[in-house]
Design a protein that fits this description.
2 domains, 143 residues, DNA-binding transcription factor activity (chains A, B), mainly alpha, homodimer, two-stranded antiparallel ribbon, 57% helix, Multidrug-efflux Transporter Regulator, Chain: A, Domain 2, DNA-binding
DNA sequence: GCTACGCCCTCTAGCGACTAGAGCTTCAAG
DNA sequence: CTTGAAGCTCTAGTCGCTAGAGGGCGTAGC
């Protein structure tokens, strides 16, 4: 909060947050970002509040939160006196999903590695095609 | 190949492969599955070849291969005399993506776990909102 | 043969989260 | 005052399906 930032063009905001220009406009269109002020010629002009909010959004997206979850997180962030139990619930649900995804990807990784253990010869002898053609040859039954 | 399967309705094929009926029609529309024969009344009738091909597709999709990659794998599977180097290349590329995704998800998981280490009190003290609002408080700089 | 019911048909539109392009206007540096 | 980058709106496309409307087909029982 040392420097007072005002009147950023959309491109400046994009550079400062790492969010692409069309994506910023898209966020505005779905109500995730508020409509900014406009220059006399009609161009968007952003301030420190927009910058902070967009960084919050960007970070949450990087963390894999869905837009609707971010909407809820934003609403909570706007109310510092409220409880954060809901934020916990959202985060826990998200964590569970992430852990599940990791487990499935690890199984998949092992399977892909096993598939690569072939001598690169003809298709007739290739484990990759073979495994894909016949599920029984898989390492796991998980899928 | 013990039993000769012919004249499956689309629903039978769906049950035998675990691929939903509209998805089978979708695969046909994008040329991933060939157009099947039709009954007198115009309903699709599938044979053993379709069944095998759809199982191949299903399995590859489960393994996270994209449709275009599956197209290439299918073309290779159809040519058992050809080399399988390309199948290796596709699989290796896919494996690299999967490993990358795992690494990022693990970092994310740790971050989410750290975020949950808050006493569930007011938003003003909540690490979740705080971390999302300020990237600097993250565990990693990876994102 | 007739009816009932489940399955099948085509077609269009929608999802999430953007991304790309056309065709035009505005801004700021030189 | 000109130029060129960056902004504007709008539409349409991406991927891999999924949902729904409004109808036609197939078969089992009577």
């Amino acid at each position: 909060m040392a420097v007072h930032i005002e009147d950023l063009a959309i491109g400046d905001l994009a550079r400062r947050t790492g969010v692409k220009v069309p994506t910023i406009r898209y966020y505005e269109s779905i109500g995730l970002m508020p409509e900014p002020a406009r220059s006399e010629g009609g161009q968007r002009r952003y301030g420190a509040g927009h910058l902070a909010r967009l960084r919050f959004v960007r970070h949450a997206r990087d963390l894999g939160f869905e837009i609707d979850a971010i909407r809820e997180l934003l609403a909570m962030a706007a109310d510092p006196q409220g409880g954060c139990g809901e934020a916990h619930a959202i985060t826990r649900a998200h964590l569970a999903e992430v852990e599940d995804k990791i487990a499935r990807l690890v199984a998949l990784r092992d399977e892909l590695r096993a598939m690569l253990a072939c001598d690169n010869g003809r298709v007739a002898d290739c484990r990759i095609i073979e495994v894909l053609a016949d599920h029984e040859k898989c390492l796991h039954d998980s899928h």
